[in-house]
Write a structure and sequence with these properties.
The chain is mainly α. The chain has one helix and no strands.
Length: 80
């Protein structure tokens, strides 16, 4: 009888340890996922900033090209 109670106790202890291990693994996975989500959000912000900088640069370049065309057109008109 004592042996069977001991065996049941050992089995329960093993089950509890396994459950705790699974719980710790789940907590660790959730923590890692949260960290990865934060990194993804930061990367998205950086990509948005880069996209905005590229758009500003393209806009400035277009303005400079338009100014150059206007200057060339004005010079051509003056020469005639």
């Amino acid at each position: 009888m004592k042996q069977s109670i001991y065996a049941i106790s050992c089995t329960l202890i093993c089950l509890l340890q396994a459950a705790c291990g699974v719980s710790e693994t789940a907590v660790t996975a959730a923590t890692v996922a949260k960290g990865e989500a934060a990194q993804a959000e930061q990367a998205k912000k950086q990509m948005d900033q880069i996209k905005q900088q590229i758009e500003q640069t393209n806009s400035q370049q277009m303005q400079h090209e338009e100014q150059a065309i206007d200057a060339a057109t004005a010079k051509s008109a003056d020469e005639k």
